């Protein structure tokens, strides 16, 4: 089981500066620079006609029509080829996104050259090139100026003095003593810059996922229909009552009956007419004990009590035939009903993946926010899951609805399939 979280969530944690996330954000930012530089060249070519016109107007000279026409043709060619050029860049960016976001990114299959210009995927990847070549350099350049300014403040005591003077926007520093307060302010600003860098990278990663996470047409999450008439009003209280009654009432009496039957068998000779029926009754009582024990455990899985939700889901993943990766971000306690419902959701969904999906691997993600526990199970199988065909999703939606949650499904033909469950966690 792997327990982790994305950069955006990590920024909200108090120990962010002491974690590996600032270094992961730095790695993402550094590897962005060559890609953004190359994309910026294309953006400059596209903007060249406007730059030519602006320069001519600023100098009061006529615009060179021939040069403008040539630049416009080149710019239009660059824009027209953007969907094609965006394909390799998008492949690299989907891979790089794993540095700051562990959620999988759905990549489209190659559908031919014409599809690059006739599908939304190709043009979204072209739009990402525009973001990478225009907005990213501007944002990174602004942040770079802030870093240089902070570095100048910190180095002020060594740079000031003699004939050297440090000119700030609001003051002029003539001596090392005058530079010390600014140096201290610069040191105090370093953590803020680290957070700002993380926020900048998180925004870039969010835009990357928005444009490059390929969701085929018709794959929007849709809520699975469930019948409120089938729900039990006091589900959790009734569950606890049944569990307590079975465990404290029926189970001890059945255990006593089994022991008495066993003792009776010892007192009855093997050749007695009642020996065989008594042995059969004893064996049936022992089988019933095992069945009852399974029912009691099934009401609330013992793994939850012993291990907690994250580890219990990890245990389910370890026993799955299909390789399953678990990502858990459970920084707050989860109510018992929500915990039990989430466990059954994962258990039933992984069972469906094994039986019906034909998947090579699956991923489970548990995220605890202020008001929700979000459970996501994704697989790379054939897709086409339909609650109306009896895959158990409707019954699972009933269980989720009993906890006041909702179940949503995305399963286009050809996959992938995503089951998302949102369970409210009231304080």
UniProtKB/TrEMBL annotation:
Catalytic activity: ATP + protein L-histidine = ADP + protein N-phospho-L-histidine
CDD domains hit by this protein: HATPase_UhpB-NarQ-NarX-like
Transmembrane segment boundaries: 25-53, 65-87, 126-159, 179-203
Keywords tagged on the record: ATP-binding, Kinase, Membrane, Nucleotide-binding, Phosphoprotein, Transferase, Transmembrane, Transmembrane helix, Two-component regulatory system
Keyword rRNA-binding set for record: no
Enzyme class of the recorded protein, top EC level: transferase
Residue ranges annotated for the Histidine kinase/HSP90-like ATPase domain, each copy included: 344-425
Name of the protein in question: histidine kinase
Organism of origin: Micromonospora tulbaghiae
């Amino acid at each position: 089981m792997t327990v982790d979280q994305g950069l955006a969530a990590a920024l909200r944690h108090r120990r962010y500066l002491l974690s590996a996330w600032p270094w992961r954000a730095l790695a993402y930012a550094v590897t962005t620079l060559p890609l953004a530089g190359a994309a910026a060249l294309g953006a400059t070519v596209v903007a060249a006609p406007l730059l030519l016109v602006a320069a001519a107007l600023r100098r009061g000279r006529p615009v060179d029509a021939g040069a403008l026409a040539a630049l416009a043709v080149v710019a239009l060619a660059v824009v027209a080829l953007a969907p094609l050029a965006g394909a390799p860049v998008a492949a690299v960016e989907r891979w790089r996104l794993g540095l700051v976001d562990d959620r999988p990114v759905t990549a489209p299959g190659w559908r031919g050259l014409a599809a690059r210009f006739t599908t939304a995927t190709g043009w979204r990847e072209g739009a990402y090139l525009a973001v990478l070549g225009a907005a990213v350099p501007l944002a990174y350049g602004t942040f770079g100026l802030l870093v240089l300014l902070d570095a100048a403040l910190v180095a002020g005591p060594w740079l000031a003095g003699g004939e050297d003077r440090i000119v700030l926007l609001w003051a002029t520093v003539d001596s090392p003593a005058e530079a010390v307060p600014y140096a201290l302010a610069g040191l105090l600003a370093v953590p803020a810059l680290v957070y700002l860098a993380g926020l900048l990278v998180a925004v870039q990663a969010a835009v990357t996922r928005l444009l490059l996470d390929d969701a085929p047409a018709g794959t929007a999450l849709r809520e699975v229909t469930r019948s409120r008439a089938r729900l039990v009003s006091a589900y959790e209280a009734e569950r606890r009552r049944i569990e307590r009654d079975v465990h404290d009432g029926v189970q001890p009496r059945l255990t006593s009956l089994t022991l008495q039957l066993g003792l009776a068998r010892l007192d009855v000779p093997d050749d007695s007419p009642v020996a065989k029926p008594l042995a059969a009754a004893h064996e049936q009582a022992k089988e019933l004990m095992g069945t009852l024990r399974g029912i009691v455990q099934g009401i609330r899985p013992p793994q939850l009590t012993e291990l907690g939700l994250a580890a219990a889901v990890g245990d389910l993943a370890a026993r799955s035939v299909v390789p399953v990766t678990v990502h858990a971000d459970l920084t707050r306690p989860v109510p018992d009903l929500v915990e039990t419902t989430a466990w059954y959701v994962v258990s039933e969904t992984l069972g469906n993946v094994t039986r019906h999906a034909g998947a090579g691997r699956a991923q489970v993600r548990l995220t605890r926010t202020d008001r929700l526990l979000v459970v996501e199970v994704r697989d790379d199988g054939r897709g086409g899951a339909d609650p109306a065909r009896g895959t158990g999703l409707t019954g699972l939606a009933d269980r989720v609805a009993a906890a006041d949650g909702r179940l949503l499904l995305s399963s286009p033909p050809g996959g992938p399939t995503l089951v998302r469950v949102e369970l409210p966690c009231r304080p």
